[in-house]
Amino acid sequence: MPIRLLPEALIDQIAAGEVIERPASVIKELVENSLDAGARRIEVDIEQGGIGLIRVRDDGCGLAAEDLVLALTRHATSKIASLEDLEAVNTLGFRGEALPSIASVSRLKLVSRTAQAAHASELTAEGASRSEVRPAAQPQGTTVEVRDLFFNVPARRKFVRTEATESSHVARLVERLALSRPDVSFRLRNGARVVLDARAVEGETQGEARIRAVLGDDFMEQALPFEHSAGPVWVGGWLGLPTAARATQDGQFWFINGRSVRDKQLMSAARLGYRDVLFHGRHPAYVLHLQLPPELVDVNAHPSKLEVRFRDQRQIHDFIFRAVTWALGDTRPGAAPPMPVGLVAPAGARTPAPAPVAAPEPGGAPAHAPVRETARGPVHAPAREAAREPGRDPWQLAAVLESMPVPGEPALAAAPAVRSPQAAPVYAPEADSRPLGTPLAQIRNTYILAQTADGVVLVDMHAGHERVLYEQLKAQYADGLPSQQLLEPVVVELPAHQLEALLENQAEWERAGFEMDALGPTRLALRRIPALLSNTTIADIVRSVAAGEGEAEHHIEDASDRFLATLACRTSVHARRRLTLAEMDALLRQMERTDRANQCNHGRPTWVALSWKELDHLFLRGR
Fold first, then answer.
1. Please, are residues 72 and 130 in contact by the beta-carbon 8 Å criterion?
2. Following DSSP, what letter does each residue of 373-436 receive, concatenated?
């Protein structure tokens, strides 16, 4: 077959295949155009999941009559004019492909009016055909009506899902768009039913108000506000507590300079930040905004603009990972709510909001601050202003990252916390304001029962001690853990591939206090071990850690963390061990001072609280 030029109609339909995947894709492109036009109110109507009808109406600046034909022409746009504009895009749309692509696979009507026009203008399109521009009646703004999507592309229509599925995709999309712009009113109707009605909000708390309107109060009651910056790059928003993790990723929202994205690198970095506190198989929930100069991010990586590329992908990944890890360090008793006892909570009861974090000591880590919002999402003023300074290289993140703290307490003695020789504690209701209270008893030699001024607390002693030891080991790991020489080496039998993988990371083991060498293809000799380990358990610990070598994404850090977590799990107090009240009290006080102590190393909760009001509710007191 000879080479030939394709017809314009076919070119448009090919382009539509890249941009228009389903009805939600149409709505995304149209709403983003409305936001670029300065709209303050956007209404979306759908029928039959968006296949029968999509209507997007806004009160933006509108289009002049002479621009309507150009608006349906491929690569016609008012948002960029040169390569320099493309490299620093600050609008949501810019490719000039959305409207002509939509028009090529639907029956489209475009009505628009500017503030200066005496009346609105209307243009219709059906596949490749276009009508003449004619007068119409409409207030200032633009209305785009799309009917019979994919009517002329039956192969594409076969891939459209059920009405319920497509409607769900549309609802999730409009929620994301509403979260990106709290200053804009959004309304979504499915037939006669209002699915979402989020009114515009202003002020410093607009982000929180919009989240409550879109995601509900439950999300906010189990979320931790935070922000962090490095040079011109800023990240902030709300991190869902580890106890609010979900079975799916549908609670994860990322925005870059106000643009909603589903970027795998950002999602991976955030998940790594949760790795020490997240239960296996669960996914964190969060609403996060990333602000950085436009020239540092390429939003032209894909026609749908859902994925982006950064000028320095690795540094952004590490910046997000460290910021999330640092923020989650405050998930300890007294700094964030524990796992609620939901089955007994009385009607109307609310989980207390996270306590404010005090300013750091001079030279310490930066304190958490509330997120400030603007019309384009959260903005960190110092970072944005620094990026605008003339003559300054906006990309100074590498140097700043070197000084960013990786959370962890100062090095503490690695001996188990429960071996404190102090006297047994005495409960004093009028003076005890400690989050975990005063221990009263041990239940089934597994749980610690404690009393606070507000109620009672149950602590899983193994889970709590495991977290305390893990954080201590991480803090000491950089300088090398204390070790002891063995009079006789301990020989451990391992599969050949596990021994080979272990020896590849021998430096990590040596820093943890081990001295080892291979006696053969399957035999490992341990000549020095960490001081906190005993000869009787060391072989099992080495086998457990070696079995997982090389499986983690973040190889070096994950390998060492997994190793230290195994050490902490094997050396912490276990169920069925009796503790004295003094030992219980020592453990509770250590937990209150330990980062991430609300969860153990496996992501399980370490304690739960039951208020006096909840206890009274259980026993029907006061009725």
1. yes
2. EETTEE--HHHHHHHHSTT--S--HHHHHHHSPPP-PPP---S-GGG--PPPP---TTT---TT
Residue with tokens 């991976």: 268
CA proximity to 340, closest of 458, 446, 443, 248: 458
Pair of tokens at residue 155:
């192969």
Q: Which of 264, 262, 250, 219 minimizes the C-alpha distance to 237?
A: 219
| pLDDT tens string 76-89 | 666 555 666 556 56
Say if residues 600 and 339 touch (Cβ distance below 8 Å): no
- CATH code of the domain occupying 8-198: 3.30.565.10
Whole-angstrom Cα distance, residue 175 to residue 180? 9
| CB-facing half-sphere around the CA of 543: CA atoms within 13 A | 12
What would you measure as the largest C-alpha separation in the chain, in angstroms?
A: 96
* CA 171 – CA 164 distance, rounded (Å): 10
Pair of tokens at residue 183 = 């200053």
Q: At residue 412, what is the residue type?
A: L
pTM over 0.85: no
CA 263 and chain centroid, separation:
11
pLDDT digits (tens, 9 = 90+) for 238-270: 999 888 888 888 899 999 988 888 888 899 999
| CA Rg value for the chain | 29
- Within 471-513, strands assigned E span 483-493
CB 592, CB 332: distance < 8 Å:
yes
Considering only CA atoms, which of 147, 107, 99, 148 is closest in space to residue 129? 107
Options 3.30.230.10, 3.40.50.11810, 3.40.1190.10, 2.40.160.20; CATH for 206-342+367-403 is 3.30.230.10
In CATH, the number for domain 417-610 is 3.30.1370.100
